[in-house]
Every structure is written in C-alpha cells, then in structure tokens.
C-alpha cells in the first residue's frame, strides 16, 4: 500500500469525549494555524487505503506518562499509561496499515507530550508520532489525552481527550486509535466496538454453544448464556442494548431477544414452527427471520416487540438469511428457488425480488455493508470462502482462501470483515478471523474458547 507524504500541514485541534466521558483538560497545545482542512491539498501525512498495502506507515506510540502516579480502581496511572500505549499500538498494527515501532523507544516526560523531540523520532523510523498522558481526577474519573504529530513536518495533526470512568479506561485507548486511524486514512473509525459470537467447547456432535460478548480485540470477554441450551446466530440491535439469537431452549429452536443490562431474555416468535436466522432492521423496529411452515421456508419479519409475523417471500424454495440494507429500504437473502443456492435482493416489503449472483458455485450468508456499496457472502464450491459483490451483483471478489470460511460480518466502517474458520475431523474446531477489503490483512481474533458466527456491532455510543 502506498502511504504517506508529508509537507506542510494544518493543525486541527480537537477536543472530544467518549461515551460516558466529558470534555478534557489537556496540556496546553501548540498554536493551531489556520488554513484548508483538505489534507491532500496540504500535502499532509496520509495513508492511502485505496491502492492496497505495500508498506505500512511507521508510527511511534511511546508510553503515556502521568503527571503524578495515583492508585485508581483500574490500577496505577503509570501502569495504565503503558497499557494504553499498547492498546493504541495493537489496534493500529492490526489494521495492517501501520507499523508501530517496537518496545524500547525512548520514554516521554509529561511536559514533552505537547513538545515532541522530533529529531529523535524521524531517525528511529517513525513518520507519525502519538503521544498522550493519563491523569487521575479528584472525582474518581480518569483523563486520557491523545496527540497525533507528523514527524517530518514537525506539526500537530490532531488531538482528542477523554474523561472516563476507571472501568472504561480501555475504551480511551481504542478511541485514541480511532482518532489516529481516521485522521491518517480518511476512513471511519472501528476500534471502539464490540463483537457478539458463539463460544464453543467440547467434542464435535456434543458441542456446548453459548453467547459471548467481547471488545473487537478479544478483550473484556463475557459469557451471556450458560450453555444449557445451544445458542446460534446472535445479532445486535442497533442501540446495542439487546441481542437477537436462535436458541434450543426447551429443545425446540426459536428466536429470542436477550437484554444485555438485565440479562433476561424473551421469546420473540411463538415456537410452534422452526424459526431461525434473525436480523434486526437499522431502525430497530423489525426483526427479519426465516420460518419453516409445512415444509416450506420463507423470510418473515416481526415487530421487535413481538406480534404477528409478516411473510415477505413466497417461493417453493428455501428462502433464508435475510439482512437489511443500511437505509432499511432493501433486503438481501439467499434462496435455492432457481435450483442452486443464490443471492437475491428485494424491497423491504418483499416486492421486486431479483437474483444478483450468477457465478459458479453457491452463495450463502449475505450481509449488506454499512456503507451500502457491497454485499459480503460465503461462496460455496469445493470450499467455503468469503467474498464481496456490489448490490447489483457485479464486481465479485473473493477475499479468503480458507477451506471452510463462512458467516462474514462487517466492521462499523465497512472496511473489515470478521468471519469464522472451521477445521475438519473429529477434533475440528472453529476460530474467529478478520480480513480487510484488500484480502491481504488476514488475522485470527483471540477468543477464550473456540468461536463461531461473529456479529460485529456498530461503534459504541
């Protein structure tokens, strides 16, 4: 990927807050010159995410100092400063677009946060520099400051600060990484987000499958269900307060809604028929699902609060896997009505159903990009691979080469896909993986146990 060029620069002073955070009190910044805010016109340090990765941008993220070491419920502030720098480095490295300098770079004193020693960082291999600080406040909160510098032009590019509860200290690191990523790539953020998935353990044929929730980097892991009933296909509601999923509670598969705060669940559709594959509409009003009635499976929708299901498809084939477009106006789903498993789109009311996939093999598990410009899918044909195509069915591109990759889910910014990869045999297992739209940056996501069917939530509020 081509990267970076720096020349003159504009400095954009930003003071923002994370969810649950308040405006910061930060060290005095350098003066902010006026000028255009178009980085390309100004020759600003830029990471090109369009051309593909050939050389990740060198970036330094030294330990974030603290003016005074203090004990907090999250730990000592000097230790938190080390951990915050590591979170930022890891997020940026995992994007595939950045190459953080390894540990051992020089320490930064608190006053140096706003007065970098650029003469050191350039020869050390850094084109960009991230410096920050952490401070314990008298009211029990923490302030985390984050500054981004262009090393060669010796200018500040952006700054952001967060006041967080001690329990949310990791989110400040993800927010800092999001600010840097967005500033240097022009892309939307995605690090401060969560993933719900199916955690698996035990031998094949007797797997325990339960819902689990974690940050996108695999941290802050929590089990939501106890494994007494098999849980499958979880998906967030848009407000991230609830999760819809399929459960074999009472030995009959049906769709439930799990409330994250109360840890309670409710049956959404009476389980007189087999119901599965739930997906919530972007406005949170509807839940798409599939239901088998009299041996025929169609796509239905039901109000999020429950009610009488409305059938949207009416073909003799198996119609399932429906997901909404970002504006809620259309639905993509899979159907074998043509004789093979293919992708179709239709209006949200079920009208104007149209086939969009015509390549060799079969297509499954479609999901619309948050940007609306692509549909991701599982391509079946000798192996299972992850691919994308336009909503009209053109420009098909396969992103993975795994023997059994399936069930893609989009990152909030629509540039990365998470999916699961299974291995065969009696001891086969499943792991979560991610890949970006270049198909180059493939990596395994750490989970406490085996993992399958991930659903990537939107940015946290």
Q: Nutshell version of this structure?
A:
α2 runs parallel beside α4. This protein is globular.
Question: How would you describe this protein?
Answer:
By secondary structure, the protein is mainly β. Helix content is 10%, strand content 39%. It is built from four helices and 31 strands. Residues 1-42 have low confidence and may be disordered.
Mean pLDDT: 88
Q: How many beta-strand elements?
A: 31
Terminal CA distance = 32 Å
For the largest sheet, list the strands in their spatial order.
Answer: 4-1-5-6-7
Task: Give the helix proportion (percent range).
Answer: under 10%
Q: Which parts are unreliable, with pLDDT below 50 for 5 consecutive residues or more?
A: 1-42
User: What structural class do the secondary elements suggest?
Assistant: mainly beta
Gyration radius (Cα, Å) is 24 Å
- Counted by DSSP, the helix tally is 4
């Amino acid at each position: 990927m081509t990267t970076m060029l720096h020349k003159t620069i504009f400095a954009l002073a930003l003071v923002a807050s994370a969810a649950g955070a308040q405006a910061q009190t930060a060290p005095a910044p350098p003066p902010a010159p006026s000028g255009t805010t178009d980085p390309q016109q100004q020759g600003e340090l830029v990471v090109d995410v369009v051309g593909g990765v050939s050389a990740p941008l060198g970036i330094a993220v030294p330990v974030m100092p603290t003016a005074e070491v203090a004990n907090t419920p999250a730990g000592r502030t000097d230790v938190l400063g080390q951990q915050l720098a590591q979170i930022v480095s890891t997020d940026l490295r995992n994007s595939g677009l950045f190459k953080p300098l390894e540990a051992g770079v020089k320490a930064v004193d608190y006053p140096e946060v706003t007065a970098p020693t650029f003469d050191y960082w350039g020869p050390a291999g850094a084109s960009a520099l991230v410096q920050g600080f952490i401070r314990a406040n008298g009211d029990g909160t923490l302030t985390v400051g984050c500054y981004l510098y262009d090393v060669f032009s010796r200018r500040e590019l952006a700054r952001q600060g967060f006041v967080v509860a001690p329990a949310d200290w990791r989110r400040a690191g993800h927010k800092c990484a999001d600010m840097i990523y967005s500033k240097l790539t022009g892309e939307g953020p995605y690090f401060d987000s969560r993933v719900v998935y199916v955690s698996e353990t035990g031998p094949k044929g007797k797997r325990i499958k339960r819902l689990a929730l974690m940050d996108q980097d695999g941290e802050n892991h929590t089990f939501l269900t106890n494994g007494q009933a098999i849980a499958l296909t979880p998906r967030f509601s848009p407000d991230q307060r609830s999760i819809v999923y399929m459960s074999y509670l009472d030995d009959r598969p049906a769709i439930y809604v799990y409330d994250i705060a109360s840890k309670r669940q409710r049956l959404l559709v009476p389980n007189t028929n087999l119901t599965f594959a739930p997906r919530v509409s972007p406005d949170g009003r509807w839940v798409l699902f599939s239901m088998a009635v009299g041996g025929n499976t169609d796509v239905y929708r039901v109000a999020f609060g429950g009610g009488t299901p409305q059938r949207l498809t009416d073909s003799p084939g198996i119609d399932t896997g429906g997901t909404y477009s970002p504006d809620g106006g259309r639905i993509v789903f899979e159907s074998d009505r043509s004789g093979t498993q293919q992708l179709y789109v239709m209006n949200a009311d079920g009208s104007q159903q149209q086939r969009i996939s015509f390549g060799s093999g079969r297509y499954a598990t479609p999901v619309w990009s948050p940007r609306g410009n692509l549909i991701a899918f599982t391509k079946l044909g000798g192996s299972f691979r992850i691919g994308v195509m336009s909503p009209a069915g053109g420009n098909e591109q396969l992103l993975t080469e795994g023997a059994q990759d399936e069930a893609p889910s989009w990152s909030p910014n629509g540039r990365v896909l998470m999916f699961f990869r299974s291995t065969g045999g009696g001891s086969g297992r499943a792991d979560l993986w991610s890949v970006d739209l270049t198909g180059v940056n493939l990596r395994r996501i750490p989970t406490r146990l085996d993992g399958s069917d991930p659903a990537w939530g939107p940015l946290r509020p």
